[in-house]
Structure formats: C-alpha cells, structure tokens
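Reviewer 2 asked us to include a model.

Predict the structure of this chain.
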Amino acid sequence: MSEFLNRHNMLWEGSRMFLPEHRAALLQRKQDEEAFIPPQLDEDQLVEMNRLLMEAVDGDFPLLVRYVNRRRPCEWCGFVQKINPHERWIRLANGRETTTISFSDIYGMEKATDRDDV
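Predicted model (structure tokens):
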C-alpha cells in the first residue's frame, strides 16, 4: 500500500487514516495485480491432455495436474478416480486425500514419475 500513498509529505504522514472501504479497495487492487493468469491452451495441448487422461485411467498410473485455484497456481499428484465429461471435472486421489478439479482450471498435465509423491 505504501507505493500508492507515497506522497512525500512528512508533516501529515502520522495523521493519515483509511476508511474501511478504501482499505478494502486497495487490498483488492493489490490482489488483482498478483493474480496468476494461466496460459491459453491450443488444440494440440488439449489433445495431449486428453490422451494422458485416457492412458491414466487405463494404465493406472498417477498424473501431475497443474491448475488454478483462487487465482493461484496449484499442483496435484494422484490417480484418476473419476472423469465426468458432462459436468467437466476430474476427481484425483492420492491415498491421503481426494480432490475434484474443473477442466477449465487445468492448464497442464504430465505423468508423475516419482511414486513417493502419490
């Protein structure tokens, strides 16, 4: 917040106050600037991700899925438990936890090479 309010007026620096609405607006602006924007996927990448999903279901090997969650990049390593093409999500399980990821949030996928992460 200091870069927005750096007015170099030291006489009034100690008496500055914020209304809650102004503070919330400044925090929202900072969060918007820090938001992660995933790369656009082209047709070849979508076909490759579809192929990996089908192989993971048939071959029973774990996938490392990169996705966006609350404007932050996330990774999840696990076995494909269920694919719902109508509602457009996949469910992955890694023995400890299970998560459901929307197709629109996924921006990368690869075979997991280290089985200790699963």
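The chain has a mean pLDDT of 83. Residues 22 and 28 are 10 Å apart (CA to CA). We have added this to the supplementary material.
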